[in-house]
Each structure stands twice: as structure tokens, then as C-alpha cells.
Amino acid sequence: MFYPQPLVDTHTHTHIYIYIYVYINLSSCYNEYTSCRQQLRESSIELRNLEAQLRAAYITKELAAQVAEKEAAKMKEKVRKLNTSCRYRALSFLMFHLNGSRHGQIYGEANEA
After folding, report:
1. Do residues 103 and 111 lie in contact, with contact meaning Cβ atoms separated by under 8 Å?
2. Are 47 and 40 in contact (CB under 8 A)?
3. Are 21 and 15 contacting, i.e. CB atoms less than 8 angstroms apart?
4. Is the pTM of this model over 0.70?
5. Which of 8, 46, 56, 92 has a C-alpha 20 to 30 A away from that of 63?
6. CA dist 59 to 4, 24, 30, 71, Å?
7. Is 21 exposed, middle or buried (0-12, 13-18, 19+ CB in 10 A)?
């Protein structure tokens, strides 16, 4: 193993070289660990099947969210149209009765224009 040589022959810088040595060893262990995980994941049929099921579940969840969004937009549009329609009907009703009462249409009298 490589041990860095101190530049100054004192013990004050020794702890820095120990930290470097530990860091190098830990990083090589981590690289081995990740490569072992990668090999295990690629070689295990069960893990590949579970990964595929997980991907399918995420896709299904995303599609369900999109459908719910579309349904909410449709419902919002229906409510907007209903509100507009109700306002129009209320205004028409008021206009008819206000105009009718002026001209006597409420009581069945003909408008003589």
C-alpha cells in the first residue's frame, strides 16, 4: 500500500497523512461495494423482476394522476358552464318578468306595439 511521505520530518503533519490513507481505503471499499451491488442487481432475476414491477407501479401511478387531473379539469369546466348557464337563466327570468310587467305580459295582456 502507498504511504505518503511527510514533507517535514515532524509528527505534526502525521495526522493529515493518516486521514489521506483512511480516505483512500474507504473510497476503494466503497467502489468495491457499489460494483458488487451492481453485479448483484444485474445477475439476480428476482431483483430485476422487482425493479420492473416497481417501474410499472410508478408508471401506473403517474397515469392515474394524469387521468385524475383530466377529470378534475372536466368537472371544473362543467361547473363553470353550469354557473354561466344559471346566471344566464336568472338574468333571462328577471328580464322577462321586468319587461313583461311593464308591458302587461305577466297578466296575459297582449303587447300593443
Report:
1. yes
2. yes
3. no
4. no
5. 46
6. 51, 41, 32, 18
7. middle
